[in-house]
Amino acid sequence: MKHYRKELWFETARRRELINITPQVEMCLRESGIREGLLLCNAMHITSSVFINDDEPGLHQDFEEWLEQLAPEKPHSRYRHNTIEDNGDAHLKRTIMGREVVVAVTGGKLDFGRWEQIFYGEFDGKRRKRVLVKIIGE
Question: Which residue range forms the structural domain that includes residue 107?
Fold first, then answer.
């Protein structure tokens, strides 16, 4: 069995962003040479997320509005976590959107449904953060 590991780095200009990272993950798969197996992609920070969904701008805006209703950024005093930092909402948003995805690799390609794409969700940005891609298989 072969294995592959790579870190992808991101630094967003805004506090919250959704970035389609499918092309970077597909490049990792090509680099790995693995044709059959499993790919794990996970956020390495507790205020960011990796998830699978459709790459549709209206849906991205729906995520932003929905997450902000569930865990509004302000007032910062709303969160007990915010005694040192002001990112209590980002921790909750990450929990809702998830830490990682696992995708089957078949014939050297990500075995996706028709509209599925991999996204990096940043909820406390403006600093450098990383995503791990780990692939195992043959």
Answer: 2-137
Q: Which two tokens stand for residue 31?
A: 């680099």
Task: Please enumerate, as own/partner, the contacts of 55-59 that have beta carbons within 8 Å and a separation of 24 or more.
Answer: 55/20, 55/22, 55/115, 55/117, 55/119
Whether this model's pTM surpasses 0.85: yes
Predicted pLDDT at 17: 97
Distance CA(42)–CA(51), nearest Å, equals 9
Beta strands in 1-128 (DSSP E): 2-10, 17-20, 37-43, 48-53, 100-106, 109-110, 117-122
CA distance 19 to 60: 10
Q: What is the CATH number of the domain that holds 91?
A: 2.60.120.460
Domain count across the chain: 1
C-alpha span between 102 and 74 (Å, rounded): 33
Contacting residues for 46 by C-beta, under 8 A, at least 6 apart: 91, 94
Name the phi and psi angles at 119, rounded to 5: -125, 145
pLDDT tens for each residue of 2-55: 999 999 999 999 999 999 999 999 999 999 999 999 999 999 999 999 999 999
